[in-house]
Amino acid sequence: MRHFPGTARKAFPAPLFAVFAVLFLGRFSSAGSPPLSADRTIALYNIHSQESAVIEYCSAGAYVPQALSAVDRLLRDPLNGEVKSIDPKLLDLLFELHTKIGASDPFTVICGYRSPQTNAALRARSQGVAEHSLHMEGKAVDIQLPGVPLDVLYRAALELKAGGVGYYPKSGFIHVDVGPVRTW
């Protein structure tokens, strides 16, 4: 188990923890998703930067700020390098998807954060790019999972009912986001 500098585990009285878990974790977990487990790790490979990382982004039921910053950097805009905060709920969705599939390989990230300028440039070249894409808010990612057929990954993402899911078999990826539940 990896820990990041500046993070320490502190004892929390059981009765207070129960109240905390019900009020805080239940309030912020995605609809239909279980509350955060004690530790959550995500493995990602960015196809554009060729960077990869295994990041424990949730420890003892709390998000780890340094780990979230590492994810933000890994999922930065592929054209201009701009970094934006990635919504932790998106990481939770990826964690749940990876767990559901039972895969061991990291997700291959085709596109994480996309700046408004990059989104406009891509939109000018392709009709498949939304004008108000959730990529610009750090709430969407386009992915592959080595060894997992794309249609299997797509169906597993649909079953989570945790946000939008797009299927792009010709391009070889699926899109997942933490916006409203929808599919295309």
Give the N-to-C terminal Cα separation.
Answer: 38 Å
* SSE pattern: HEEEHHEHEHEEE
Question: Order of strands in the sheet with the most strands?
Answer: 3-2-1-4-5-7-6-8
Give the overall pLDDT as a whole number. 84
Kindly identify the CATH topology: Muramoyl-pentapeptide Carboxypeptidase, domain 2
Count of structural domains:
1
Counting helices, strands and paired strands, the structural category is: alpha+beta
Work out the helicity level.
25-40%
Large-scale geometry:
globular
Question: Nearest-angstrom radius of gyration?
Answer: 17 Å
CATH class: Alpha Beta
Largest sheet: 8 strands, mixed
CATH architectural type: 2-Layer Sandwich
The unreliable regions are 1-34
- Say how many strands there are: 8
Number of helices: 5
The amount of beta strand, in percent, is 15-25%
How would you describe what is shown here?
- The chain is of the alpha+beta class and 184 residues long.
- The protein has one domain: Muramoyl-pentapeptide Carboxypeptidase, domain 2 (2-Layer Sandwich).
- The protein is 33% helix and 22% strand.
- The protein has 5 helices and 8 strands, in the order H-E-E-E-H-H-E-H-E-H-E-E-E.
- It has an 8-stranded mixed sheet with strand order 3-2-1-4-5-7-6-8.
- Helix 3 (88-101) crosses helix 5 (150-160).
- It is globular.
- It starts with 13 loop residues before the first helix and ends with a strand.
